[in-house]
UniProtKB/TrEMBL annotation:
Gene3D superfamilies: 1.20.1260.10
Phylogenetic lineage: Bacteria, Pseudomonadati, Pseudomonadota, Betaproteobacteria, Burkholderiales
InterPro entries named in the record: Aromatic_CoA_ox/epox, Ferritin-like, Ferritin-like_SF, PaaA, PaaA_PaaC
Name by which UniProt lists this protein: 1,2-phenylacetyl-CoA epoxidase subunit PaaA
Superkingdom in the source lineage: Bacteria
Coiled-coil annotated residue ranges, if any: none
Organism: Roseateles agri
Gene: paaA
Length: 312
């Protein structure tokens, strides 16, 4: 019977159909989605920390309002994605526990420190830019609840990218020499970590082949990274900044940029918990969870009281 269900599932995937929460699906497909969606949710939640760090220090009321809205959007994306993962039969408690015990990953990018105000612009431009490149194809992911979530998330991400680029444009075109240097320094620090967001090279990506076959991933890690470089370099030229890669060069024949080798040892070090901010990020999340225990307890007590009132 399972073989029959499996064959029907495969046929739907091959036909480009979307799978809904109540449809039959192979266990491995379910597990892969829980892994990816929950890690995506964790990334949004941990991703609030580097920028949250600058809300009180934004240079103007306008910048503060924008940054506050952006960080709130990230919270929304995280909660929305946890809900999408819950449709697959996992619980919020299980997912949060996996993050807090170091069993679940979150994006390597959020383990770097935000040293200056220019980092806020560069995160919007490069980090949200990379996130959009990766997430637009996920709007066509074969698992429909995730695909639907991605459509809304991508709309907000494009506002995030634009606000970052605009903040940098102001610093580069109207700012002082010191501000321009600050932007260049931030680009130097965030460029390579942004390229790492797309994950290991295709040949070293254990999950890619199966996820591509299932239509979870539609474009490979390396292809997305290339598209990101090609889209971003012209923007850097308009800004008037350079990227810290001596091997970057337009390849006329391929119609794409060639770029230098990524430091994969650094990538795996950060992914495996030993980046500049890993311990601090995780500790901040665990503390927030512990500090919020009374709210969860109070909400539960209230719900119980309401339930007994109805019975009476
Ligand atoms: N960091 O076999 P693959 C955002 C792990 S954007 C850490 O290629 P897969 C918005 C990977 O999980 C950032 N770990 O894996 C925002 C796997 O380990 P596992 C979040 C990484 O899943 C902006 C192992 O390496 N976006 O939050 C990374 O097929 C600004 C082998 O890799 C998403 O999560 C990495 N960079 O492809 C918020 C998008 N790369 O799980 C605030 C959805 C790989 O087997 C401010 N996710 N690993 O233990 C995806 O598209 C995919 O999961 C990939 C990885 C492409 C990230």
């Amino acid at each position: 019977e399972d073989a029959e269900k499996q064959a029907a599932f495969d046929a739907r995937i091959d036909a480009g159909d979307f799978i809904e929460a109540k449809d039959w699906m192979p266990e491995h497909y379910r597990k892969t989605l829980v892994r990816q969606i929950s890690q995506h949710a964790h990334s949004e939640i941990v991703g609030m920390l580097p920028e949250g760090n600058w809300i009180t220090r934004a240079p103007t009321l306008k910048r503060k309002a924008i940054l506050l809205a952006k960080v709130q959007d990230e919270a929304g994306h995280g909660l929305y994605l946890y809900s999408a993962a819950e449709t697959l039969g996992t619980s919020r408690d299980q997912m949060v526990n996996a993050l807090h015990t170091g069993k679940a990953k979150y994006s390597s990018i959020f383990n770097y420190p935000t040293l200056t105000w220019a980092d806020m612009g560069v995160i919007g431009w490069l980090v949200d830019g990379a996130a959009i490149m990766n997430q637009v194809p996920l709007c066509r992911c074969s698992y429909a609840p995730y695909a639907r979530a991605m459509i809304r998330v991508c709309r907000e991400e494009s506002f995030h990218q634009r606000q970052g680029y605009e903040a940098l444009l102001v610093m580069m075109k109207q700012g002082t020499a010191e501000q321009r240097e600050m932007v260049q320094d931030a680009v130097n620090r965030w460029w390579w970590p942004s390229l790492m967001m797309f994950g290991p090279a295709d040949k070293d990506s254990p999950n890619s082949e199966q996820s591509m076959r299932w239509g979870i991933k539609r474009i490979s890690n390396d292809q997305l990274r290339q598209k990101f470089v090609d889209a971003t370099i012209p923007q850097a030229e308009i800004l008037g900044v350079t990227v810290p890669d001596p091997d970057l060069q337009w390849n006329e024949e391929r119609g794409e940029y060639d770029f230098g080798a990524i430091d994969w040892a650094e990538f795996w070090r950060v992914v495996n918990g030993d980046g500049p901010m890993n311990r601090e990020r995780l500790a901040a999340r665990v503390k927030a969870w512990d500090d919020g225990a009374w709210v969860r307890d109070a909400a539960l007590a209230h719900a119980k009281k309401q339930a007994t009132k109805k019975e009476a």
